[in-house]
Write a structure and sequence with these properties.
two-stranded antiparallel sheet, mainly alpha
Length: 464
């Protein structure tokens, strides 16, 4: 049958079960931005078909990951995230056969493009099933939410793809700008609707407590809802904001952006932490929404449903009231602080009395030869702007497991404060470690750093 691929190409994938051959023919002639509303295939048949296809989908994506990356568990000696999870070290992107990083640094973008030696791990990373798309959660989060709430975030059609040791620690610590004296207020717990009041009563004001409740309340979403157009075995109450932004941090849950068509051009999303949103002026990796209130409302009305308001209405969109509910949610988000950085002074620079020689050299590279501070300015290491890295200079457009790798366009400058706590990196999570990130930017920006300079730069970024 040809209709599923046609549906995905024109409609954005994961938006309906079955169109029928006649409808597919019409779609082929007239591509559309809209998803079909009426479902013509019964749910049991769809689930059986997609479950049967899951092993092949999983294997194909796993082969891609192993072709691109070293996925082994190699923790850095003595370097941990805020609550003690080891930070992974080393370049994980695999080089093309017969090349070295030094070789690539001497080549022009045109030469790299023509010879086809741009490392595959630097290309856009597809969703675990890009033609289908949708929210996918790491297994550890699925199990915790099932234990606490009895709510099941399991998808019958696919699983999360990256190994746990490459992901952020779980649960993340919670630091508040209003109560820095308390340190981590999570007490090592995943905050949910079941425990938030006990944890935060007496710490937050009533508006913030209500905002947190809403951030923890499940609402219908594209794959998790109560209709027969879903990807959970049973009808679902939905997902919460903190199912991705766990504890105001991140568990690296993934999805596809809702504002691009057709499906193959949609970007995979790496969930960023909400820490430090109070100092940010752009929200969404490319949307450039100007306030966290805008982003909160946009997520509920559109992003949860692949940017399709018709389907949102069908599946039970939660319309938030801007003057109270959105405001309360934003007020809590805006007090989420970055983790402590004891080696930094009040200007966001290293204190020479606390930093190692390698870290000090790395800071010099960051502000000098590496040109990192051009975009990532202290104290929070962002310029609150968007920049186009033009990575398409280095490779020819190509289809990768349903993802058309071509121009990414402008991407916002994410803050680097607390960066070691939130792997993976870049807007779609294609870079697994800070070492990968340094190699990527060294090549893309042409700074020609030495091996020692790269090592020192990583050491500095771990202090942020």
């Amino acid at each position: 049958m040809i209709w599923p691929s046609l549906r995905f190409r024109h409609l954005g994938g994961g938006l309906a079960f079955a169109l029928g051959l006649a409808a597919a023919g019409a779609q082929a002639e007239h591509p559309t931005s809209y998803a079909p509303v009426a479902i013509t295939e019964d749910f049991a048949t769809v689930m059986e078909r997609m479950k049967a296809a899951k092993p092949e989908v999983t294997e194909k994506h796993q082969q891609l990951l192993e072709q691109r990356y070293d996925l082994s568990n190699r923790p850095a000696d003595g370097v941990t995230q805020s609550r003690g999870k080891p930070v992974q070290e080393g370049v994980r992107v695999k080089l093309p056969k017969g090349t070295s990083w030094d070789d690539l640094a001497t080549m022009t973008p045109e030469e790299i493009r023509e010879e086809g030696v741009f490392p595959k791990g630097f290309l856009p990373l597809p969703h675990p099933n890009h033609p289908e798309g949708g929210m996918v959660f790491p297994k550890f989060h699925i199990e915790e939410i099932k234990k606490q709430e009895g709510r099941d975030l399991t998808r019958f059609d696919l699983d999360y793809d990256l190994p746990d040791h490459l992901l952020p620690e779980y649960p993340p610590a919670i630091y508040l700008t209003t109560r820095p004296d308390l340190g981590d207020v999570s007490k090592g717990q995943v905050v949910t609707i079941m425990n938030y009041f006990d944890l935060f009563n007496g710490i937050l004001n009533p508006k913030q407590i209500e905002g947190l409740r809403l951030l923890l309340t499940p609402f219908p979403q594209q794959q998790f809802n109560q209709t027969d157009d879903r990807r959970s075995a049973l009808p679902s109450r939905g997902v919460t904001c903190f199912d991705c932004h766990v504890n105001g941090g991140t568990n690296a849950a993934t999805h596809l952006v809702g504002d691009i068509r057709p499906q193959e051009f949609r970007h995979r999303i790496d969930t960023p932490p909400l820490r430090g949103v109070n100092i940010q002026r752009l929200f969404g990796s490319q949307r450039a929404l100007k306030t966290v209130e805008d982003f909160t409302e946009f997520e509920q009305r559109a992003a949860y449903f692949d940017g399709d308001p018709v389907i949102a209405t069908k599946k039970g969109v939660n319309i938030l009231e801007r003057g109270s509910q959105v405001h309360f949610m934003a007020e809590f988000q805006e007090i989420l602080d970055f983790p402590p950085a004891p080696k930094l002074d009040i200007f966001g620079r290293l204190d020479p009395a606390k930093a190692s020689e390698s870290e000090m050299r790395g800071e010099e590279v960051f502000f000098g030869k590496g040109r990192c501070a051009t975009c990532h300015a202290p104290p929070y290491y962002t310029d609150n702007l968007m920049h186009n890295l033009q990575t398409e200079r280095f490779f020819k457009p190509q289809m990768i497991n349903g993802r058309m790798a071509s121009a990414d366009g402008p991407i916002k400058t994410f803050p680097l404060r607390g960066i070691k706590d939130s792997p993976t990196y870049l807007h779609d999570g294609r870079l697994l470690t800070l070492e990968d990130t340094v190699e990527f930017f060294n090549l893309v920006t042409g700074t020609e750093l030495t091996a020692d300079e790269k090592k020192d730069l990583v050491a500095f970024m771990r202090t942020l």
